[in-house]
């Protein structure tokens, strides 16, 4: 049991899921900025000089130990040469979109399975035709070694 469940929070309720997703998105944003900083070879001292902040404050920012202002995030992004984009949508639409993506993925998997079965049936028919047409056993055996390629 999760400690939030023990405190009486309904972790399956939409308001909780929304709150969790918002916090997770904040962490992902900061983690992406840190990743870009590190990939560029910049140190915290380099960023501190460019932003006018101190390295200790930036370290707390990177470790999710403070709740930064948007201006702080912008200054950090500018210092490391990163662009930030925002997406805002009603939460219920996101759930509907996720369900639609899942259904589309399941449909693609099903279509691929049908296509594979159809390809195998055609291949089996070709091999049967080769055998029935009097092609020697070695030719049919050679043809049997080839696997059909799914498109």
Describe this structure in words.
The chain is mainly α and 151 residues long. It has two domains: 3-80, Orthogonal Bundle (434 Repressor (Amino-terminal Domain)); 91-144. Helix content is 71%, strand content 0%. The protein is built from seven helices and no strands. It has helices spanning 3-6, 14-39, 44-51, 55-62, 70-80, 91-132, 137-144. The two termini are 46 Å apart. The mean pLDDT is 78.
What would you say about this model in short?
By secondary structure, the protein is mainly α. Helices cover 71% and strands 0% of the residues. α2 packs parallel to α5.
Structural class: mainly alpha
- How far the N terminus sits from the C terminus, by CA atoms, comes to 46 Å
> Percent of residues in helical segments?
over 70%
Basic shape? elongated
Q: Report the β-strand fraction as a percent range.
A: under 5%
Kindly report the CATH topology of the largest domain: 434 Repressor (Amino-terminal Domain)
| Element string (H = helix, E = strand) | HHHHHHH
What top-tier CATH class of the largest domain fits best? Mainly Alpha
Q: Overall mean pLDDT score?
A: 78
Low-confidence segments: none
Main beta-sheet strand count, sense and barrel state: none
The total strand number stands at 0
CATH architecture label of the largest domain:
Orthogonal Bundle
How many helices in DSSP terms? 7
Radius of gyration: 28 Å
CATH superfamily annotation of the largest domain = lambda repressor-like DNA-binding domains
Record the SSE blueprint:
Blueprint: H1 3-6, H2 14-39, H3 44-51, H4 55-62, H5 70-80, H6 91-132, H7 137-144
Helix pairs in contact: 2-5, 3-4, 3-5
């Amino acid at each position: 049991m999760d400690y939030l469940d023990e405190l009486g929070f309904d972790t399956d309720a939409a308001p909780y899921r929304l709150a969790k997703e918002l916090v997770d998105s904040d962490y992902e944003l900061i983690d992406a900025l840190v990743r870009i900083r590190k990939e560029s070879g910049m140190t915290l001292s380099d960023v501190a000089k460019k932003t006018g902040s101190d390295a200790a404050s930036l370290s707390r920012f990177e470790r999710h130990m403070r709740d930064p202002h948007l201006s702080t995030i912008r200054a950090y992004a500018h210092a490391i040469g990163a662009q930030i984009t925002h997406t805002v949508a009603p939460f219920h639409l996101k759930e509907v979109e996720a369900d639609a993506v899942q259904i589309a993925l399941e449909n693609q998997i099903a279509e691929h399975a049908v296509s594979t079965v159809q390809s195998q049936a055609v291949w089996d028919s070709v091999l049967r035709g080769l055998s029935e047409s009097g092609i020697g056993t070695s030719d049919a055996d050679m043809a049997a070694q080839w696997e059909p390629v799914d498109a």
